[in-house]
Amino acid sequence: MNGEDWRSLLTDATKEVQNRVSKVVEQGEVSKVVEVGASGDTTLVADKEAENELFKALTPLDGLRIISEEAGNWGDPHAPLVAIVDPLDGSSNFERRIPFYCTSVAVAKGDSLAGISWALIRNLVNGDVYWAEKGKGSFKNGIRLTGSKRASLRDVVLDVDFSRGPPELVAKLARLVTSVKRQVHIGANALELCFVAEGCVDSFVDMRGRMRMTDFAAGYLIAREAGAEVTAWDGSPLELPVRLETKISFVASGSRRIHADVLDLCR
Q1: Which of 27, 55, 75, 229 is most buried as measured by Cβ atoms within 10 A of its Cβ?
Q2: Which residue, 245, 242, 251, is CA-closest to 83?
Q3: What is the number of other CB atoms lying within 10 angstroms of the CB of residue 103?
Q4: Claim to verify: residue 166 and residue 135 sit in the same structural domain
Q5: CA distance linking residue 124 with residue 127, whole number of Å
Q6: pLDDT, tens digit, for every residue of 222-239?
Q7: Average model confidence (pLDDT) for the chain?
């Protein structure tokens, strides 16, 4: 399939996800747990409903295997394409009725981060759709994204996740956090990488080594295609296998200048 085919299929599939998740809210089942997923986290009924809709769209495709936060690995392990799926990113927000959560799908050629070629993330609260194709840019609702243009740390809105991180990591990040205009973390990593692409936040830092590939893959391509720098905390390229068990630390910034300053403070 070409990029337009992927965009159409994933747009339709994630719209169905939004419809199903909305019905779970209407039925008052936001906290209902059905099982423990492959990632080890509890699976809400909304997680399962969202995954079912994505699998309905993806499993009929030849030559495609799936990695999902809930179901784990599905399909032929030697398939040339892999879909990396987080059916409901921001489940904790959803369960607590915080209106910030999304569904995330990336498709890679092969089993490395460098092979990610298509990505779509849908905000399940307001329906915004972020889309990227490798080498062809990133878009929000059809409008091209170009990331942040800010050049000074004192103007930066920094997204940093140090939740459940060790005290020494929090201490290490203190100088960075106190050097920027504002620090936030909203609780849906895929959507927050889209905010880097969009320029809503200027940099996103997660050095805990805990983020999963299912949270990261689609947002990574969307941010990169918008011109963002996305590297390891020491500035080296991210060269990672696309696997359920892969855990990630990274720094993503909308501009090269801000990225250099953030990396310097992270060190």
Answers
A1: 229
A2: 242
A3: 31
A4: no
A5: 5
A6: 999 999 999 999 999 999
A7: 94
User: What is the CATH classification number for the domain harbouring 53?
Assistant: 3.30.540.10
- Are 232 and 252 within 8 A, CB to CB? no
- Tokens for 146? 């170009």
φ, ψ dihedrals at 209, nearest 5°:
70, 35
Q: Would you tell me how many other CB atoms lie within 10 Å of the CB of residue 19?
A: 12
Contact 106, 116 (CB under 8 A): yes
Q: How many domains does the chain have?
A: 2
pLDDT higher than 80, residue 34: no
Identify the H or E element spanning 17: helix 3-26
Q: Which class for 234: exposed (0-12), middle (13-18), buried (19 or more C-beta within 10 A)?
A: exposed
157 and 140 housed in the same domain: no
Domain of residue 48, residue span:
3-144
Residue 35 binned pLDDT confidence (cut-offs 50, 70, 90): low
What number of residues does the chain have?
267
Q: Quote the Cα angle for 14-20-21, to 5°.
A: 90
> Does one domain contain both 135 and 160?
no
3-state secondary structure of 92: helix
What pairing do the DSSP bridges indicate for beta strands 182-184 and 157-160? parallel
Q: Name residue, tokens 């085919």.
A: 5
Contact 51, 71 (CB under 8 A): yes
> Tokens 């890679």 belong to which residue?
108
39 and 101 together in one domain: yes
Assign residue 241 the CATH number of its domain: 3.40.190.80
Q: How many CB atoms lie within 10 A of CB 147?
A: 24
